[in-house]
Each structure stands twice: as structure tokens, then as C-alpha cells.
User: Fold this.
Amino acid sequence: MTQPHSFFPIREEGGAVLILDQTELPHRRVERELADLEAAAHAIRSMQVRGAPLIGATAAWGLALAMARDPSDSGLNSALALLGGTRPTAVNLRWALERLKAVLLPLSPSSRAEAARSEARKVCLEDEAANRAIGQHGLKFITDIAGGKAGAVRVMTHCNAGALATVAWGTALAPVYAAKQAGVPVHVWVSETRPRNQGLLTAWEMREAGIPHTYMADNAAAHLIGHGQVDLVIVGADRIAANGDVANKVGTCLKALACREWGVPFHVAAPSSTLDWHCPNGAGIPIEERSGDEVRRVAGAEGAVTIIPEDSPVANPAFDVTPARMVTAIITERGAVAPDRLSDLYPERKP
Amino acid sequence: MTQPHSFFPIREEGGAVLILDQTELPHRRVERELADLEAAAHAIRSMQVRGAPLIGATAAWGLALAMARDPSDSGLNSALALLGGTRPTAVNLRWALERLKAVLLPLSPSSRAEAARSEARKVCLEDEAANRAIGQHGLKFITDIAGGKAGAVRVMTHCNAGALATVAWGTALAPVYAAKQAGVPVHVWVSETRPRNQGLLTAWEMREAGIPHTYMADNAAAHLIGHGQVDLVIVGADRIAANGDVANKVGTCLKALACREWGVPFHVAAPSSTLDWHCPNGAGIPIEERSGDEVRRVAGAEGAVTIIPEDSPVANPAFDVTPARMVTAIITERGAVAPDRLSDLYPERKP
Assistant:
């Protein structure tokens, strides 16, 4: 099945690694080359690329770029340290780095550059395949609802867990793209996602794909969910603990609370690379505190403006943890299960 | 007790009615004269004044201005209709208009102008007194918590239900001002309150009063409440139904859901003028849908910028209803009670 979108969040062209700079979207479409390791680390830290799977893929490419310059053990270790310290919450970063480390460490330095590049390509291809499978598993939830009602199935999401958060297809939005391709009518509630307004990225994707959508302030979630305006919520994840607790963009848990109150399904879509089997529950997931300037200033088409005067302090936790008890199903490339049955999908993880 | 703040949201000076234009705050402090009925209606509709009690007070003054120009029955009725149609949710608007109508209708037109002005003054004085009493009743919740812990009592609020939402003192923030005056250490979590960012008004008030506070994105509420960073939540209300269901600024219910989940008290502070005994429950409260441009554009110190391209539609419900079951106590000038005991405070309303 062809990709449902006309852009590439990260791609290789003639030996160069190119990213779509998401800090410029939706107002400008700018592709940038990741020239070296430092550019890759900067892209992750500054959120030119964001979304857990795309962070993992970019880290893999960052390591490949590092190996092209210094494939020694010390070059490898310092690249792992630099990339590993860029962002703390999305476990896909650690997953990708450990995966490449396991491949590269046994090799002689002279063969690491090509091996790293090859493994980065595999990470990307697997992410695309996993997300396509997530789309098909999630599509069942949408078609089940479509069969019982007139009009479009109304999906609410939070942040951007679309193609822009991954290599292709997205996680939470993969079922939406799959529904569009299958001819099942869908409508997407796009939540703004303050402070960084990643809802703009979701709205941009939906416009590009011609999928009907409506933008809303995050605050409107309980009103819409409580008034029967939402058939299901699907979000992505930055890390899922072994018990099914889900770290995702801050504000996610508020939507889960409203869903549980009014009996609306709340699904989490993520590839296996987002599962952290070493983390027994959400309390062990580090929550990144980002700069208050993200809240203080807002970017628009005309530039950025300051909304909060400097003399008011600002808190900016970037993620929250939604307890497993509020999650209806977790959708991975292997299927969809209740959070407490997650290990059933991964029998190899059982003790 | 003197007012705890150095500004007047609405005041009379030498026969003129002056408002602090809240669309200019926090970046500029601009007072405007309400020259006539139309200016009063515009001030309410455009949210130069906002907050349920202040909407009521401004409507009372608007009627007084109308009577100065045309005190006939038709002048009275058309002024009531114009003001009554400005905003649908805050019941204080209807309350103030009905109160003045009951005073003015029996009078001869020649005495209506002075009577309206006198009644508008009474509405303002009573609002100030009610809010001062709310402050004292709410203070008990804060001092109770202060007695059992070290450090400041951490109050989270939503929107602005401070002095700027009333004639003086505020509703949700009246207990905070009372705590400050009583020497009880408080810290206020100021929620941004997208789309119109009334958190900026709360932060401005807190800066003016020298009360410690931290600004946060609305999305951070579950993370902070779930991590023991909040001792209690106090919000205002635009309308409280007879069963204790509370309409307030959109996003309020999300905070109530988080409070209930993690056992944090969720209080609603409002004067009696916000109680709608004709409305049996929240389903009967009209929820204003405002222009999508409020979400689409954001104002900052340097001007406004467009964040959402025109080709994405926007929904903008301005309020939500928090079911009574999620409310710990309703605080009015008569005291604080569980929502299902509201009528105990108002025995005259019992059938």
C-alpha cells in the first residue's frame, strides 16, 4: 500500500539525510540536511523532528553520521552519549541507540559507517511497516463504530501522532489514514496541544490528505466528549510501561479522564519500540521539564509574540502519564489488547 | 477591610462610568468610558469586561446609561433586549437586568434614570460585599490545609475569577486575597485558559498583589494534580444550576475530573447572583459558541499573530458544565456547602 501522505519527515537522498523542519510548519515547508551528528542532536533537542518513533529514527541516522566521521570506540560512545541526552521521555531514542550499539560495537571501526547507515535504513523501514500494521489493527475500531451509526466516525486525537511523528503513516493517525483509504468516512478533532501547538501539525496533515477535521482548544475536550461529539480517542505514546501506563504529550491524561467518565473508548497506538519492558509502571518514566519560553511565546504566521510577561514564572512539564486503568486498548503492530494483556502480545518477554 | 487590589474593573467617576479594558491587559492598562448603552453592550460582547459578576454589574450600568437617554417603556425594553442578547451563559447578566427591570418598570419615566443609577451602584456594592464574604468562607479551606503542612498552600485556578471578573475581590481568588491579608502563605497555579488566555489576567492580578504564582499550560493540570503539586482547586462559575451543576470557562471540567481522580478538593466560588434556581441541572445551561478567530489568532505584547491557517475549521465552545458529583463544595456569600446541599443555604427557595 502506498504512503498516504506526500511528504517525508526524514529521508535519504544521494547520501544526504534530510528532515522536514517541523518548527517551520504549518506556515513554511522547509527541508534541512542533517550534515553531522551535532545537527541530528540539535534537530531532536529543538524539536525540528519530534514524535517518539521519529526521534528514534533520527537518532539512528545521527549515529550513522557520527560513524562516517569517527568510527572509533570513543567516537561511538560519545555519539551515543550526545544523542542519548537530547530528550529523556521517548524510549524509542534509547531503543534505537541500543539497537545500533549492539550492531556496531562488535564490528571493526572501518565497517561501522556502512553498517550504521544500513541499520538506520532498517529502523526506518520497520517503523513504516509497524505503523502500517497499526493502521490496519486500529481501523477495526473505526469500522466497528462506522457500522453502527450514520455519518463520519469522529476521532479525537492529541498532539501529533501522525506521519510527522514517525517515518511514515503515523501511529494514532495511521488508522485514520487507513480509514480514508478504505473509504470509511472519518472526521478528526484536532486538539491544539499547548504549549507547542502540535495540533497544527495534525491539522496540516489532515489538510494535505483531504481528511475532514476541526481544530479545538485543548480545554474543549470534556465538553465535546461529554456531549456525544466524539466516537473514540486515539493518541500516540512516548513510552509505555510494562503495566500499560502510558507517557504521552502533556494533556493526554485529561482526555483519558473525560473518556472514562463518559464511556468513550480511549486507545493508544504505538510501535513495539515505544514499549519499555524495563519500566514496571508509569512512576518510573522520566517526565521532561522544558523551557518556560515554550509557554511564554507563541509562534504564528507573522512571527512569534510574547504572551506572558517575564515576571511570572512558568512551569512546563512536556508529558504526563495516563494510568493503564484509563486506557481501553493499546494498538501495536502485533494487534490491539487491553493494557493489562500487553504481555500476551509479546510472549518472548514473559519470565 | 480595604480592597486587596489597586485597580477597579468598573467604577463611577464624576458621573462617568469607567471600565478597565481587559482586552488590553496584561500588556497595557487602559481605562475606557462607557459613554452609552451601546458601549456597555459592546464591552460585554467583546469581552472588554468579562467574568459573570462583572458582566452583571456592567449590564446594570448599561441600563442606567440607557435610561439617561430614553427612559420610556420602549427605551427600557429595547435596552433590556440589547443587553440581554450580549452573552448567553453567565446568568448574572439576566439576574441584573431582571433586578433593574423590577425596580424601573413601576416608576414614571422621569425618575428612571436616577433610580437605575442608584440600583447599579447597589449591584456593585453588593457584589463587593458578597465576594468579601466568599473570601472569608473560602479562607477556611486554605487555613485548614495550611495547618497540616509546611510551606505555601498551593491553589490551582482556571480562567480568571479574580477581582477583574467582579466589581472587587473576585470569587475564586477572594480566598487567596483573604489568605494573603491573613498572612497564610499561598501559591497560585495559573492555568493559561486557552483560547482567550485569561490566565494572563490572573497572573497580572497576582503580580499586582505580590502573591507567588506559576503559569502553566492548561494541559499540565493532570500531571500537577496527580503528582501532589496542588492542595486544592478553586474556580468561579458563570451559572450554577439548582442541582449544583456548574457552568464555567471551558476546561474547568477537565480539572474537576483530575481532582476527583486524585482526591484533591475542587471548590466553586460564586455569589448568589450566579445561582439559577430555574435551571434544574446543567443540561439546561446554554453554552456559548464563540468565533473560531479566538482560537485562530493569539495576542501578545507585540500584537496578534495567526496560528491556524484559514482552511482548517475551528470549534470554540466557551464554557463547559462540571457535574455536581465532581464538586467538593460551592462557596457563596452565605457559606460553603456540598453541591447537593445548596438549597440548605437558600431556605427561601425551597418549595
